[in-house]
Amino acid sequence: MSSGVTNTTAHTALTARGLPAKRLRLATEEPDWVRWSLIAISIGFLTLFLLVPLLAVFAEALRKGLGPYFASFADPTALSAIRLTLLTAGIAVPANLVFGLAAAWAIAKFEFFGKSILITLIDLPFAISPVISGLIYVLLFGMRGWLGPWLSGHNVQIIFAVPGLVLATVFVTFPFVARELIPLMQEQGTEEEQAAAVLGASGWQILWRVTLPNVKWALLYGVILCNARAMGEFGAVSVVSGHIRGKTNTIPLHVEILYNEYNFVAAFAVASLLALLAIVTLAAKNVVESRIRRELQQTLEPSTAEA
């Protein structure tokens, strides 16, 4: 009885919006076995390709017990890799936050020559392989690169040093913040900023008191994704690091070295840090998404009531 009432209500709603009843039948009258088959396929796919590998990492890391697991982190090279990863992400993420916010504000709020070129450049790291981006920095700053001899003459080392790791990480991660902010800022328009400017607010006041409060959750969402990619980046960092143990190895590079040395317990133990980071990132992402949906519903409710 309730199913019939629900279908009738849905039919009325769809008809009122001008949608054909055939679409309603496709959405509500599919056999149960079709729906459950699709659900089973989705769950099976996620279990096989996401859950099982994740469990395998922790199972292999704890295969010899908690003692060897925690001993893997006491190794000086592992501690160095962890510190270097935190340092690299600690520089790259704030840099991308500033760049992403500035680029999104310029693209969404202003019209200027070269706007489409800037958008294309922001998307460039998505199209270029991380290995290629690392090779670009080697070509520029390596000993035989364009600027290598000049840098060497001034005792400045970028490749096979921390600056190279930071540059490579910044390059592969800088689209994340900007790409989260641009659509939202474009949808919000410029009315509030224009009103604040008419009232005498300066550019910084408009940014801090009008723009940022409206995009704070999208900004945090982009920072979370950027941080996760920065800590887990392998390709670009591998090219510019030189794999100097204890000096230029980040966590992913350290895992590779341990695995190649058949030190599987230590390799999976250190890899479990990245797995935990992925879990924390997913949890934080879900929290931020829920806050974004809640604020969107609160924004839409007054307009719906007025209509």
Q: What does it look like?
A:
It is a single chain. The model is unreliable at 1-7 and 13-17 (pLDDT under 50). Helix 5 packs antiparallel against helix 12 and helix 7 (130-141) runs parallel beside helix 13. It contains 15 helices and no strands. It has helices at residues 2-16, 21-28, 32-61, 66-74, 76-109, 115-127, 130-141, 148-153, 162-173, 175-188, 191-198, 203-232, 235-241, 251-260, 264-306. With 307 residues, the protein is an all-alpha fold. Helix content is 82%, strand content 0%.
How many angstroms does the end-to-end distance come to? 32 Å
The arrangement of helices and strands along the chain is: HHHHHHHHHHHHHHH
- What's the story with the biggest beta sheet? none
Helix content: over 70%
Instruction: Count the DSSP helices.
Output: 15
- Tell me the radius of gyration: 25 Å
Mean pLDDT: 84
Strand proportion, as a percent range, falls in: under 5%
- Structural class, please? mainly alpha
**Shape type:** globular
Can you count the beta strands? 0
Q: What are the segments in which pLDDT stays under 50 over at least 5 consecutive residues?
A: 1-7, 13-17
